[in-house]
Amino acid sequence: MHRWSELFIPTLREAPADAEVASHKLLVRSGYIRQLGAGIYSFLFLGNRTINKIMGIVREEMDATGAQEVLMPALLPRLRQNSHAIATRKPCSTRRASRVISNPLTPRCGSGPNVASRRRASLSRPAK
Prior knowledge:
By secondary structure, the protein is an alpha+beta fold. It has helices at residues 22-29, 45-65, 93-102, 115-124; strands at residues 33-37, 40-43, 76-79, 86-89. Helices cover 38% and strands 13% of the residues. It is extended. It starts with 21 loop residues before the first helix and ends with a helix.
Protein backbone atom coordinates (compact mmCIF):
# COMPACT_ATOMS: atom_id res chain seq x y z
CA MET A 1 0.00 0.00 0.00
CA HIS A 2 1.16 3.50 -0.77
CA ARG A 3 1.49 6.29 1.72
CA TRP A 4 -1.59 8.50 1.99
CA SER A 5 0.44 11.45 0.69
CA GLU A 6 1.14 9.53 -2.55
CA LEU A 7 -2.48 8.54 -3.29
CA PHE A 8 -4.76 10.28 -5.78
CA ILE A 9 -7.24 12.06 -3.49
CA PRO A 10 -8.12 15.40 -5.14
CA THR A 11 -9.90 17.53 -2.55
CA LEU A 12 -11.63 20.88 -3.06
CA ARG A 13 -11.81 23.85 -0.71
CA GLU A 14 -15.31 24.80 -1.84
CA ALA A 15 -18.28 22.78 -3.02
CA PRO A 16 -19.22 22.91 -6.73
CA ALA A 17 -21.87 25.51 -7.60
CA ASP A 18 -24.32 22.88 -8.92
CA ALA A 19 -24.17 20.74 -5.73
CA GLU A 20 -27.30 21.25 -3.62
CA VAL A 21 -27.45 18.26 -1.26
CA ALA A 22 -25.03 18.19 1.69
CA SER A 23 -23.88 14.60 1.00
CA HIS A 24 -23.14 15.46 -2.65
CA LYS A 25 -21.07 18.47 -1.59
CA LEU A 26 -19.11 16.42 0.93
CA LEU A 27 -18.41 13.52 -1.45
CA VAL A 28 -17.10 15.86 -4.16
CA ARG A 29 -15.08 18.05 -1.79
CA SER A 30 -13.47 15.10 0.00
CA GLY A 31 -12.38 13.37 -3.23
CA TYR A 32 -14.71 10.37 -3.25
CA ILE A 33 -16.48 11.17 -6.56
CA ARG A 34 -16.14 13.44 -9.61
CA GLN A 35 -18.91 14.40 -12.00
CA LEU A 36 -18.37 13.45 -15.66
CA GLY A 37 -21.69 14.68 -17.02
CA ALA A 38 -25.31 15.20 -16.05
CA GLY A 39 -26.00 12.47 -13.49
CA ILE A 40 -22.82 10.56 -14.35
CA TYR A 41 -20.14 10.23 -11.67
CA SER A 42 -16.80 8.46 -11.37
CA PHE A 43 -15.72 6.87 -8.12
CA LEU A 44 -12.21 8.00 -7.29
CA PHE A 45 -9.80 6.07 -5.06
CA LEU A 46 -11.63 6.71 -1.78
CA GLY A 47 -15.06 6.13 -3.30
CA ASN A 48 -13.97 2.87 -4.92
CA ARG A 49 -12.34 1.70 -1.70
CA THR A 50 -15.53 2.45 0.23
CA ILE A 51 -17.72 0.61 -2.30
CA ASN A 52 -15.41 -2.43 -2.14
CA LYS A 53 -15.55 -2.50 1.67
CA ILE A 54 -19.36 -2.28 1.65
CA MET A 55 -19.52 -5.07 -0.95
CA GLY A 56 -17.30 -7.22 1.27
CA ILE A 57 -19.58 -6.71 4.27
CA VAL A 58 -22.73 -7.49 2.24
CA ARG A 59 -21.03 -10.55 0.70
CA GLU A 60 -20.12 -11.89 4.18
CA GLU A 61 -23.69 -11.45 5.38
CA MET A 62 -25.09 -13.10 2.25
CA ASP A 63 -22.71 -16.06 2.66
CA ALA A 64 -23.75 -16.41 6.30
CA THR A 65 -27.42 -16.73 5.29
CA GLY A 66 -26.75 -19.00 2.30
CA ALA A 67 -27.77 -16.40 -0.28
CA GLN A 68 -26.29 -16.31 -3.78
CA GLU A 69 -24.90 -13.33 -5.66
CA VAL A 70 -26.03 -12.39 -9.17
CA LEU A 71 -24.34 -9.81 -11.39
CA MET A 72 -26.58 -8.04 -13.90
CA PRO A 73 -25.53 -5.60 -16.66
CA ALA A 74 -25.90 -1.87 -16.13
CA LEU A 75 -27.71 -1.46 -19.49
CA LEU A 76 -30.04 -3.99 -21.05
CA PRO A 77 -30.96 -4.24 -24.73
CA ARG A 78 -34.56 -3.51 -25.67
CA LEU A 79 -36.08 -3.81 -29.12
CA ARG A 80 -38.05 -0.79 -30.25
CA GLN A 81 -41.56 -1.64 -31.31
CA ASN A 82 -41.63 0.26 -34.63
CA SER A 83 -38.21 -0.71 -35.94
CA HIS A 84 -35.54 -3.37 -35.67
CA ALA A 85 -33.11 -0.99 -33.97
CA ILE A 86 -31.89 -1.92 -30.52
CA ALA A 87 -31.98 0.74 -27.81
CA THR A 88 -30.48 0.47 -24.37
CA ARG A 89 -31.92 1.71 -21.13
CA LYS A 90 -31.18 1.50 -17.46
CA PRO A 91 -33.34 -1.27 -16.00
CA CYS A 92 -35.51 -1.14 -12.93
CA SER A 93 -33.38 -3.50 -10.84
CA THR A 94 -36.23 -4.98 -8.80
CA ARG A 95 -38.28 -5.83 -11.88
CA ARG A 96 -35.32 -7.29 -13.80
CA ALA A 97 -34.08 -9.31 -10.82
CA SER A 98 -37.52 -10.81 -10.21
CA ARG A 99 -37.77 -11.80 -13.89
CA VAL A 100 -34.35 -13.46 -13.83
CA ILE A 101 -35.09 -15.33 -10.60
CA SER A 102 -38.66 -16.37 -11.46
CA ASN A 103 -37.89 -17.62 -14.97
CA PRO A 104 -34.15 -18.07 -15.63
CA LEU A 105 -34.72 -19.73 -19.03
CA THR A 106 -36.48 -16.76 -20.66
CA PRO A 107 -34.23 -15.59 -23.52
CA ARG A 108 -35.22 -11.90 -23.30
CA CYS A 109 -36.10 -10.06 -20.11
CA GLY A 110 -38.32 -7.65 -22.03
CA SER A 111 -40.73 -10.25 -23.40
CA GLY A 112 -43.90 -11.54 -21.82
CA PRO A 113 -45.95 -10.33 -18.87
CA ASN A 114 -44.26 -9.30 -15.67
CA VAL A 115 -44.03 -11.51 -12.62
CA ALA A 116 -46.82 -9.79 -10.69
CA SER A 117 -49.36 -10.22 -13.49
CA ARG A 118 -48.38 -13.90 -13.87
CA ARG A 119 -48.96 -14.40 -10.15
CA ARG A 120 -52.34 -12.65 -10.34
CA ALA A 121 -53.33 -14.79 -13.32
CA SER A 122 -52.35 -18.02 -11.55
CA LEU A 123 -54.22 -17.00 -8.36
CA SER A 124 -57.39 -16.08 -10.25
CA ARG A 125 -57.68 -19.48 -11.97
CA PRO A 126 -60.15 -21.86 -10.33
CA ALA A 127 -58.67 -24.93 -8.66
CA LYS A 128 -59.14 -28.22 -10.54
